């Protein structure tokens, strides 16, 4: 049996020497190396920015969506959207565990897991498309995938429905980071606060700001804002187009009496919202970009361009304990659980 | 006289409603609004990632470089490289000051200034190309530019040569951020440590880590590494290709006895060095991406892909006092001043 690198570099076909995520093409042959785990895939949960782009390109047509997804995997050996660069995650059942992992993993053959590493670096083979749930970015397939030794995962909890757990785990990094960053007394603006990751961030932020703080939810439709309001997720609600930097700046200014946000969390899955985040944040404040549609140069040059001294953090999908934190919200809040079951379950 | 917005939105032609930096096209008519400053431009200092791309596209040919630059300004009304998204900065003389700025600016007509906002949002007109210094990314021109009310600038110091000041101010954000982030006892890795921003970061890091810390300089050529070594800028030196994540990981592991970097500063002006930064940094460490060639998704998904809990910061070109901090290095260190005069002066 062939020996593999913990990071999966042995699968990289092009360009040589890079890791699987930045690679253009990786080997998706399903014969495992000694330190790999073979997964029998059940569901792909495509990254929101990626699936939005695919749906637009396919003009909503399901067959066309499947064709685009098939082409991506055929070209790259992994489901990495060439436009957005992003992937998603999957659930499936452990089929084989490489012998080198013995004693190093608590997984057993037959365990149902969600991979918490991106599909943008996961060797994947799609044999057949089953159901496509295009409103929640999920696609059931017959297929196989490989988890590398360094790859993170969560065994699916028994007390939560699978699709619900998958939806929540997909964005687990966001609420965990919000929990780490928000302090008592902070004014927090969550742009895209009515979406999947946004509502979880609002929930964690609200727990932490206390009575002297303020959490502001920004959404783009009447319906989604009303939903967040109904769940009492924030102190204030703003309906605005997230690309309209000046409009949101004016509203945040009004609601914070000119102080602006101490922490802004961007969870919007559309491009060109960097300046909106920058203008809503006070000098020496913090911006956390969780959106995969974020442009590095637009953020860096945007802040410089208006002379704003803000710390801007790249949303790392992983932080210690993120799966536990996110799943726990579904146990703590019956209201949120109902919303997530209805929207993504 | 027409009234302008502090952020320059009145100049945006396409798409409507965005700020000048993300805009595809802005108005570069040189009749000023009431809150604008007209600058008689002397030198453009093109962002390193941008100029590297332009030189490659032009295959080093000076006339072709000029043509590409001319086309960029003709298409966008500003010097924003469509491939890298980045700009650069300029020096010039204040020619006119809008009446609305009276009492709000300390500038006078005739002051020689460097604009510290990016060329990627600065209305610019190039009338004639004079000298092109392609090895230091500088182009002398006849032309005009506009500084918005929110635009930051530095009056050029009288005790330093102009080109030297411009080169240093161009990367002023990097050493100022390094000074803020590095703490006593830290192990610091500066990737691209032998370049213009890298050497300034090494200098600031070395001042702060103290005897219990360690500063590691990473460069790609024997010559540049020897130069940094000659100036005693770091404790250790590594020559490696910055896109080779695993090679640098192994060397940093060896030099830090397995601890890895507390802080990694990325100043490399080539793509695909995100994973190199991530693998060199310890869990719960900090990565500061100053390079404009950084990809947001590659950083975010790369860290998640290897299960690394690191805080990744988008290099903001502006932070309070950055111009003063950077220029002061040239006064403090005779060795560095000599190197910068020779390389960029």
UniProtKB/TrEMBL annotation, chains A, B:
Gene Ontology MF annotations: oxidoreductase activity
Keywords: Oxidoreductase
Keyword Oxidoreductase: yes
Segments forming domain L-erythro-3,5-diaminohexanoate dehydrogenase N-terminal: 10-157
Residue spans crossing the bilayer: none
InterPro entries: KDD_N (IPR058932), NAD(P)-bd_dom_sf (IPR036291), Zn_alcohol_dh (IPR050129)
Name of the protein described by the UniProt record: L-erythro-3,5-diaminohexanoate dehydrogenase
